[in-house]
């Protein structure tokens, strides 16, 4: 009976030892996961900082030209307005004459969709 008690005691000690090993393995795994998350967060922050820097450079490169572009567009707009005003002044008398001619010289005729009436026979 002493041998079986000793065998049971040995099994219990082995179970406790294995439990400690499993607990250590779990703690190690949890620690590795935490370390991996921390490392990933650092990499994300570094990448975010790098992309923000690139964006700031891109923005600086292309936003500085907006004032020049705005001035150029305003200049082109003024040029076109001058052209339109010149065309208006040049052609306004001709347009008025044509409008008056169209109003005063009316040739009455039936509408194309009006039904045709046959003369009574």
Account of the 3D structure:
- The longest helix has 62 residues.
- The relative contact order is 0.03.
- This protein is 83% helix and 0% strand.
- The protein folds into two domains: 63 residues; 39 residues.
- The mean pLDDT is 89.
- The chain has 121 residues and is mainly alpha-helical.
Measured between the Cα atoms of the first and last residue, the distance is 142 Å
Largest sheet composition = none
Shape by Cα distribution:
elongated
Structural class: mainly alpha
Helices and strands, in order, run as HH
Question: What's the total helix number?
Answer: 2
Q: How many β-strand runs? A: 0
List the helices and strands and how they pair.
Elements: H1 2-63, H2 66-104
Quickly list its features.
121 residues, 0% strand, ATP hydrolysis activity, transport
In short:
It is built from 2 helices and no strands. The chain has 2 domains: 63 residues; 39 residues. The protein starts with a helix and ends in a 17-residue tail after the last helix.
